[in-house]
Amino acid sequence: MLLVERLVELACLAPSVHNTQPWRWHAVGDRLFLHADRSRQLVHEDPSGRNLVISCGAALDHLRFAARALGLTADITRFPDGPRSDLIAVVDLRHGLPSPTAAEDIALLRQRCTDRRRFTSWPVHALAREVLVAAARRRGALAVAVTEPGQRIELELLSRRAHHLRSLNRAALEEQASWVGPGRPTDGIPSSVLPDQVGPAPTRFGPGTLTEERAVVESTDGMIVLGGRDDDRAGWLRTGEALSSLWLRATRDGLSVVPLSLPVEVPSVRGELTAALEEPNVVPHILLRIGWQAIGRSELPRTPRRPVADVLVVGEDAGTSSRGTSSAV
């Protein structure tokens, strides 16, 4: 496997909405081009492309993380052809020294996953939340830890309202169903990663076949909101990068992360969510539940990934311009 193929394979372990993996890569020499794949956009659930761009941002940050582990520096130019272009980023790779924790870092990329099983009642302490918030902010996104009980209850109620409103949108439900369950060997969400029991709170995907070993408990999980100053593609990209950075740090610390995009996807709920945060300079892009899974829990199956050959073209000019601001990360 070529080095660039290994980098892209690791980058594509990133989380994406419904595991759609909505990206394409082109490699020309030491330069990589990341494109949004519009054929994988959820046109009913994500008409603006917010979740698509966030997903691409997560893959971009996974690439940066993998490059550093393998002794490369990634100089990233974001939206070189402007924010409306599907050319998300250009990455220039420069050789350096391998990370002393390379094996551990690569293992971390493979270990990260979405575990939707119930959290334990162990509290997520303030210091742990602060570390995750800092990891997100280093990628240029805004991150807010929700700590006030009243505010947390309000966000839970908004999440339930979003579930109810989405249940009335038949086209969106059918689109979601097409990505969940059997019949998708390289993408989507298999039933094997969805718990077979659901609690009193609504769940987006319903029950699956993964054995839920824990009874319902009073959860003490944390919640972090990622966003930006605007609801635009530049901000969404930074949020995706922040999501990756936060999630990898959480995985290293033994914490579990479950993304909640539905309250942001439903327009009427998104407005109420913005008001509930009481952060006038923060436009929410995605919510995250943070918590502890039980020690000794069964191994979680991994969601599938598309073959590298399906997402990477090597040696063809991707036709990008040289405009944009480059920053070494």
Question: Per the principal axes of the C-alpha atoms, what is the gross shape?
Answer: globular
Mean pLDDT: 90
Largest sheet: 6 strands, mixed
Structural domains: how many: 2
CATH class of the largest domain: Alpha Beta
Q: CATH superfamily of the largest domain, please?
A: NADH Oxidase
Give the low-confidence spans.
214-218, 320-329
Order of helices and strands: HEEHEEHHEHHEHEHHEHEE
Task: Describe what this molecule looks like in 3D.
This protein has 329 residues and is an alpha+beta fold. It has helices at residues 3-11, 50-69, 102-111, 126-137, 149-167, 170-177, 233-252, 262-265, 267-277, 308-311, and strands spanning 23-28, 31-36, 72-78, 87-95, 142-146, 222-228, 256-260, 283-291, 312-314, 326-328. It has 10 helices and 10 strands. α2 (50-69) packs antiparallel against α3, α2 crosses α7 (233-252) and α4 (126-137) crosses α7. It is globular and about 50 Å long. It starts with a helix and ends with a strand. The model is unreliable at 214-218 and 320-329 (pLDDT under 50).
